[in-house]
Amino acid sequence: METTIQVDRNHLPLLDNVLTVLQGHMEELLVRLSKFLEIKKHLPAAPAGRHQNIDLLAKQCSFELTWAIQTYSMYKGFRELVEPLPVHSDSLELPGSLGLD
Length: 101
Prior knowledge:
- The chain is mainly α.
- It contains 2 helices and no strands.
- It has a domain at 21-82.
- The two termini are 34 Å apart.
- The model has no long low-confidence stretch (mean pLDDT 85).
């Protein structure tokens, strides 16, 4: 079933807010992922269960970050359909891959 969504200039504040919230969430997830990987680096070799737990947390964080990036890209596309965004040198660069496979 196909759904049509009407997006116009009236939606710009909402779209901008969604993009801001998602960007903040992605930044938090990147910090969290970095902390998990730093903790893993400093864990002693035994017991292996702790490494597995950190790996699981990092993988979940990576999945959530991937979802947030895809959602951000989708909403940014909606936003640009209504009105193209100005290009800023401080704009968010989205990573292509986190290398956590």
